[in-house]
Amino acid sequence: MNILDKIIARKKQEIAETKSKISVSQLKDSEFFGRSTFSLKETIKTKSGIIAEFKRQSPSKGIINDKVLPLEAVSQYEKFGASAVSILTDKDFFGGSFDDILNIRKHINIPVLRKDFMIDEYQFYEAKSIGADVILLIAACLSPTQVSEFTELAHSLNLEVLLEIHSEGELKHINNDVDFVGINNRNLKDFKVDLQHSVDLKNQLPKDILSVAESGIYNVEDFKFLKGKGFDGFLMGEYFMKNENPGKKFSEFISNVTM
């Protein structure tokens, strides 16, 4: 069983446990459920294009940064031009929680991507209830039909959809309704990074779709390479988070890529 299979198996247990405690009706009564959402479609074009991530740990890297608080990082991300922030909400494998979004939602005015492994309708109501604006769908753990159905549900909740693919076989998951297609530079099964693989895959995308390069962007040169290949957005986390002051690292990065 690879790491993705382990994560999904645990996620199914986690969702069942949460459903037994909190109903969809209760989620709909939450403070943020009725709020107007921010659009990444707008900010990805008007700001830096970077979706800056808050991530404490990962299965491949272990602890990345468990000292800095979410608001410390994301407030700086916003200040220096991030188009959006990405927050990991998976607890067991990434050290995240819903509180990480709840604690920053009122303090920033750019989109928040709830980054998790979305496999059940219930999770979309969760995302809305905690103040997310965008959700991630991972093709590797969904069927094309599920992607279509989940996209429709997300849009009914005014949530935008970032569909993540990694292989040519996953191109079939793309439909006309997803808002962005993200290409993961890192293989979720073995965690190897290959930027050229992502470029080759991007060249097979529909020409009018917004594209996001995800993960494995470790320096200014990687960013400029991918931007030069036509990517609209860039999901970056580890590069900033492995610094004791992620916000400062982000500001330095922005200065270098806009020179």
The helix-and-strand class reads alpha/beta
Q: Give the SSE string.
A: HHHEEEHEHEHEHEEHEHEHH
Terminal residue distance:
45 Å
Using the alpha-carbon principal axes, give the shape.
Answer: globular
Describe this structure in words.
The chain is α/β, with parallel strands linked by helices. The protein has helices spanning 3-19, 24-28, 40-46, 70-79, 99-102, 122-129, 144-156, 195-202, 220-228, 238-241, 246-257; strands spanning 50-54, 57-58, 62-63, 84-88, 112-115, 134-138, 160-165, 180-184, 210-214, 233-236. It has an eight-stranded parallel beta barrel, surrounded by five helices. Helix 4 runs parallel beside helix 11. The chain is globular, with a radius of gyration of 17 Å.
List descriptors.
about 260 residues, 11 helices, alpha/beta
What's the short story on this structure?
This protein has 259 residues and is α/β, with parallel strands linked by helices. The protein has helices at residues 3-19, 24-28, 40-46, 70-79, 99-102, 122-129, 144-156, 195-202, 220-228, 238-241, 246-257; strands at 50-54, 57-58, 62-63, 84-88, 112-115, 134-138, 160-165, 180-184, 210-214, 233-236.
